[in-house]
Amino acid sequence: MAPDTAEAGGRASPAAGKDVRVWDPVVRLFHWTVVTGCVLNLFVLEDGELAHKIVGYVVAGALAIRLVWGFIGTKYARFAQFVPSPGRLTTYVTALLRGREPRMLGHNPAGAVMMVALMVLLAGVCLTGWMSTLDAFWGEKWLEEVHESLANAILLLALLHAGAALFESWRHRENLVWAMVTGRKRP
């Protein structure tokens, strides 16, 4: 399925009416749950404490729901709509480097790859966090190191993701952060 794009050359076509719903409540709740959970567990809560574990389980639950929603959810939530082929990704990145990337209502191919990478890292950090509570892995230093490395990778990619969202907001003259709050973008 081809992505919905704006006018060629990266410029949005004039708004023909009201904003359109792009990000449904499940996608938005997942996004902000993960943001909040990562901030809490990376910067506020003590590693290994009950609150840290509870937040981890909430994020794991949100990820499980989002993975299911990626197959049965609304148009822009479905993986089939936004996960790009290698060719589509290459075409998009080439256009981006030339300053001619198209504006897209859903995830652009680079953003889609970032979403998949972040979900894989989230799954890994949730799995290693859960494993550390099992008797078989209790106190295993290597597992703690893997868990921390995955969490740090999430932080690095999240910063890159936020920077890219700000860049795209500037480039296409729309507030993508606000769109993830409201779920709406201009057509």
TrEMBL record:
<keyword id="KW-0812">Transmembrane</keyword>
<dbReference type="InterPro" id="IPR011577">
    <property type="entry name" value="Cyt_b561_bac/Ni-Hgenase"/>
</dbReference>
<feature type="domain" description="Cytochrome b561 bacterial/Ni-hydrogenase">
    <location>
        <begin position="22"/>
        <end position="183"/>
    </location>
</feature>
<dbReference type="InterPro" id="IPR016174">
    <property type="entry name" value="Di-haem_cyt_TM"/>
</dbReference>
<protein>
    <recommendedName>
        <fullName>Cytochrome b561 bacterial/Ni-hydrogenase domain-containing protein</fullName>
    </recommendedName>
</protein>
<keyword id="KW-1003">Cell membrane</keyword>
<dbReference type="GO" id="GO:0009055">
    <property type="term" value="F:electron transfer activity"/>
</dbReference>
<feature type="transmembrane region" description="Helical">
    <location>
        <begin position="109"/>
        <end position="130"/>
    </location>
</feature>
<dbReference type="GO" id="GO:0020037">
    <property type="term" value="F:heme binding"/>
</dbReference>
<keyword id="KW-1133">Transmembrane helix</keyword>
<dbReference type="InterPro" id="IPR051542">
    <property type="entry name" value="Hydrogenase_cytochrome"/>
</dbReference>
<dbReference type="GO" id="GO:0022904">
    <property type="term" value="P:respiratory electron transport chain"/>
</dbReference>
<feature type="transmembrane region" description="Helical">
    <location>
        <begin position="54"/>
        <end position="72"/>
    </location>
</feature>
<keyword id="KW-0472">Membrane</keyword>
<dbReference type="GO" id="GO:0005886">
    <property type="term" value="C:plasma membrane"/>
</dbReference>
<feature type="transmembrane region" description="Helical">
    <location>
        <begin position="150"/>
        <end position="167"/>
    </location>
</feature>
<dbReference type="Pfam" id="PF01292">
    <property type="entry name" value="Ni_hydr_CYTB"/>
</dbReference>
